[in-house]
Each structure stands twice: as structure tokens, then as C-alpha cells.
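The records we work with from here on pair a chain with its fold. Taken together, the C-alpha cells spell out the fold as the letters spell out the chain. To see the layout at work, look at the sequence and C-alpha cells printed below.
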Amino acid sequence: MLSIKLLESTQQIEKKITTALAEEVNKTIRNNLTTILKKSKDLAVQFISSSPELSSLSEKTLGSLKAQFGIPDGQDILATSDIIQAVQESVSVTFSPYNKQLKGGGLQVNFQPSDFVNLLGLQSGHVVYSGGDLHWLSWLLKEGGRTIVVGYSYDPETGLGRSGLGTMSAGGFFRVPPEFSGTTRDNFVTRALIGKKQEADILNVFKSVLG
């Protein structure tokens, strides 16, 4: 009868197996970081493009964000494109290698700086006119339900205003419509990028790339 004598202890064998696995896992992840980043960027574009706020910013209808912010034709398309691009470019992937015990490592996809500096700096997020500079993208991201303009309110009427979809008339006040308003903790970008479905989609990216 053939017999095999192990010269190493079970603990030593397990250690070698774990070490080899850690090396293989680290190698596989490193080799696929570029693909993971690309797919994550594609997801970010998908998430933000489907937000109701971006749709409303380019809708030529009375009461839309385009109408209420007075965004001229052409600038609405530029602004939505700039927002999508800025969110896409903000995506990064960080990887910390696992140690020989397959501990301490991790793969993380990062979406959007929490200070929104990449969006707040977009020139297309302003409407500049003879009377001043309206930073409507800042209103949308940060101001929540706070009253922004006192003494004037949006008056929807086709053919009027910078957007041709209404103007500001004396009386009342103006704020971002409640269904679109946001703060730095909860705005159209965070709502688009954070959630169970988004987490599941990102996990599927990991699974499809890493197996």
C-alpha cells in the first residue's frame, strides 16, 4: 500500500495555501482595476443621467427647472452634459492589497467628492445676465427649501423670460421646487448615486470582472 508522509504540519500547509490565495487575489484585482474603473464610470453616467432633475433642467415646459431658473436654450444642454461629465470624472477606484492571511485589504469605488467642488465650479451652472449672476446649480445642490428670492415669484407664461418659459413677477418668494430641492447631504447627485440598487449594480461589476 502506497503511503504519503507529510513533512509539514497542517498549520504550515494552511498558511502556504492562504498566502498563495492572497497573492492570486491581489494579482487578479490589480490586473482588472482599469476595467473596474471604466465600468464604474459607465454606471455613474447611467445613474446621474436618469435623475429627474437633469430631465427637468432641459425640458422646454412651463414649471420645469429650466423654466424656473431661466436657463436659456443651449445652456441647458451644455449644463446637463457638464454635470454628467463631472460626475463621471470624479469616479475613482482604490485597492488595498490583502495580507498573507487574506485580511486587511479591500476594493472600493468612490463616487463624487462630498464638497461637490467639481460641480459647483462649473460655469454652465450659472446664468449670467445684466443684473447679476444666478448660481442655480448651487441652489439645487445646497439650498434645500430655503427662500432664495424675496419679493418675486415664478410666473409661468410661454414666450417670456430668458428661457421663454416664464419670468419672475413681483410678489411672493422663490425657492427651488420641493420635489427637486437638495442639501449637501441629500440632493439630486446623492439620490442618483446612493441606494440599494446602485450598490447591487456595483457589486455585479465586481462579480463580472473578478468572477
The first strand starts at residue 92 and ends at 96. Strands lie at 92-96, 106-110, 127-129, 132-134, 149-155, 167-174.
